[in-house]
Specification:
The complex is a heterodimer.
Chain A: H1 3-34, H2 44-54, E1 57-60, H3 65-84, H4 94-97, H5 100-120, H6 124-155, H7 160-171, H8 177-193, H9 212-215, H10 221-246, H11 258-285, H12 294-316
Helix pairs in contact in A: 1-3, 1-10, 1-11, 2-10, 3-5, 3-10, 5-6, 6-8, 6-12, 8-10, 8-12
Chain B: H1 8-28, H2 33-57, E1 66-74, E2 77-83, H3 85-108, H4 117-136, H5 140-158, H6 165-192, H7 201-206, H8 211-229, H9 238-244, H10 247-272, H11 278-300, H12 305-332, H13 336-371, H14 382-385, H15 387-400, H16 407-420, H17 430-460, H18 477-495, H19 497-512, H20 537-558, E3 563-566, H21 584-594, E4 599-604, E5 616-621, H22 622-642, H23 650-668
Antiparallel strand pairs in B: 1-2, 4-5
Classes of the chains: A mainly alpha, B mainly alpha.
Chain lengths: 317, 669
Amino acid sequence: MNALALLSQLGGMVLAVALAPVLAGWVAQCRAWLQNRSAPPLLQPYRSLRKLFRKDAALATYASPLFRATPYVVFGTMAMAAAIIPSVTTDLPMARVADAIALVGLFATARVFMALAAMDIGTVFGSMGARREMMIGFLAEPALLMVLFNAFLMFGSTALPTVVEDILNTKGLMLQPSLAFAGVAFVMVLLAENARIPIDNPATHLEVTMIHEAMLLEYSARHLALMEWASWLKLFNYACIGFALFVPWGIALHANGPLALLFAVAWLAAKLVVAGAVLAVIETVSAKLRIFRAPEFLSMAFLLAVLGLLVHLLLQS
Amino acid sequence: MNPFFATHVPVLLGLVFAWLVLGLAGLVRSHRIAWVAYTLFPLGALVALGIAAVGFSALADGFVAEQVILPLGLPDLPFHIRLDALSGFFLLLLGSVGAGISVFAAGYFRAGEGASPGLLCLQYHTFLASMAMVIVADDAYLFMVAWETMALSSYFLVTTQHRIPEIQRAGFLYLLMAHVGALALLLCFGVLQGGSWLMTFDAMRGATLSPVWAGVAFGLALFGFGAKAGLVPLHVWLPEAHPAAPSPVSAMMSGLMLKVAIYGLLRVSFDLLHGGPWWWGMLTLVLGLGTALFGAVFAAVQTDMKRLLAYSSIENIGLIAAAIGLALLSYAFDMRLLAALALTAALLHALNHALFKSLLFLATGSVLHATHERSLGKLGGLIRRMPWVATLALIGTLALAGLPPLNGFVSEWLLLQAFLSTPSIPHAFVNMIVPVGAAVVALTAALAGYVMVKFYGVIFLGQPREPSLMQAHDAGWLERVGLGWLALGCILIGVFPQVALNAIAAVTRVLVGTVIQRGPAPWWIAPVAREQASYSGLWLLLGMAGTIAVMFVLVRRMYHGRVRRTPPWNCGYPALTPRMQDTAEGFGQPIRHMFGPFFRIARELPAPDDRAPRYRIQIDDRCWHGLYLPLARAVGWLADALSVLQRGRLAVYLMYSFLTLLVLLVFVL
């Protein structure tokens, strides 16, 4: 571990935290264009963050300390997750601390805390949202793990930077059928986990359909700001996991110098622009599923990932 | 040799004897709570710590197994005692977790609840002592004596409140299953002695069995120990007996006794049988995975908090069994390193489960004392009335949900790492099927998160569903110390996992002859190779705490920390009551919907014109109706058929004797 590694580690984390609202703004902009609405500015998420941070927090009378701590915990886990994912460089000291299984664990920690906080106030919507979120989570989490398992088995490591280095350095991207299964499964998990349209709608507050928003209903001001920011960061993290597994080009390698980092940031920005646009297209052309179709959607993702695993093992032997 | 205990076994036996003395001392002034609870139980906790210390020192490098022959037992059948690393690890588990439970029990047991405290004290310490003896027994005779003592003492503890019919029934079912299992074990040891008619484990280790008989012995052991551990379909007693017992006893049964069964399975399959063909491992793996999924799904739909935890125990035992199966499987292909990894995962998960499940069972005990309510539908909001119990239970909840940086995550991480290495198994069919087991493990782990959010959210969060909950009081200081001890264990193993792995390394060296790679620091594990996978609980915790602290300071500095208290948003409907919150049934509804075929659901829906509409739903186990009730009916039918013989007339019975004599004479002549 040297100074540059530490710097790129911290820099990557700060970059993720800073860029996440822009990605959210970009997706919202694309969606608006596709739907013939006039789009909000790209930096709108920053403005709403500033607005929320300035407000006084309105807290339910009997909210427990758990409720107040949760936004910080959720934000902290998401920022930690950003530190593990090789978005710009593979030279990440933190990736030795927590591998990709721990990454899934971090996402689960955030989800459990969010669900617990939603149940804390004891309003009907809060616990309904918690229940639905956990229902989606318990199917999406193993599906994500199985997608990652595809990569682990292929490259013999559970550390994402090692996987990326293996793809870029030696083995090249093998066009394996198992990766196709894993890719489809991953996109499905991404949509479900980030409260995107076939499963949830981030723009809705309609009682019968909301999941993520139902959990945040009691939050306001800085707590809400942190929760929103954490959810944008989650989308950013998911996008970066996808880039690392399926399109890792442009990520600076261990051995590359500081200049490569700049190129890597440019590459990342380009990939995010494309991914955001694709996400907006997916959201625009698909309709929201009934809540009890969501398990079918997710079990399909889970099965696809497992199928990818089987295909890989079958072809390997 | 360790300098502290030159001879471990005498010290150990002295400590076990001390437990028995403490138990008997409880009878002296059995109704004096100050004597029994505040003196004997804390002393018992000290003894437990001593046992843990002996166990721990047996795990040190260079420890040589100690054997002692006691002049007790029957003539020509003395008791053999042996302390090796495997026994040492389980003694460590028994002692360290038992200490926390004993301290809690000191504050928990009080007069006027079923049996007298003194009698409970005797049963309690007999239970502990018998578990210790099972773990160090070195012949089948002592093993079975201790095993039966364990079953009986726990039976009496389960039926503490023996006047309640359900508890009577639960106790009877437990006793029945315990004896069916013990019968299988007796037969298993009968097979294992291999014609030498020696009952010592040494003789069994040396006996050469034909593959068929070895398979029979393994099957019997899996049945016997599986019945004790709660492997599906032998689990039916577990969700009945664990909730029936007083909470410290539930904690002991779930946290400790199930682990003793796991110990037995490891002792027989690895030590006495030296592993076997790969189908042993496959069978255990499949049974374990099935049990894990079954337990998690059923836990999600329970409405009684202790039953929920009991089903969750079934789930965790399933994961442990799956890991053991994986170890057996890879040992059969002589992949020692993978076997060591899977075994490490199994042992660590056993220790972890003992810690957090005991913690949660004890927490339900505190809740029960404070509210007199076990049904999740009538609890809620206790985090505000019982902050200590709620905080400590939160640690147990997060650990059980397998979240980093606590201990539950470490063992699940190890198990997944083990699955990741399975494609290298040199068997074309096995190496394709087994990695898919990881999918089941992942699904189970995620379901455990669901179950734990339900458990914690419904009991401690939200608003009190009953007005009486407003009078709930927090646990006393002894209970807090007991809970805190176990919670500390959860945190320490999570943050310094390598310390636990070092202890386990001694066990894997004995059982499979190799150890996994040692991590670079106490807080850093890298079981296979550093490039492949590493994890550091401490750094993860520091990273998260650092990010949270930085964010907190930034928000406070750049903006403000002002808070305004308001009523929650009621959606414009002001007549909301706490009873309208999501219930435990409601929270389990998605699982009930998705896993419908798992359950046997009986629903009672209200008619449209009902004056007092009532909605009732009952969820039953299919095993019970599909397997056990037909079995019970068959036994009843057989007994009826045989009762024809019972005529109640002396002449008939004399004729039976006469006929028997005649038949025997025919054989003899």
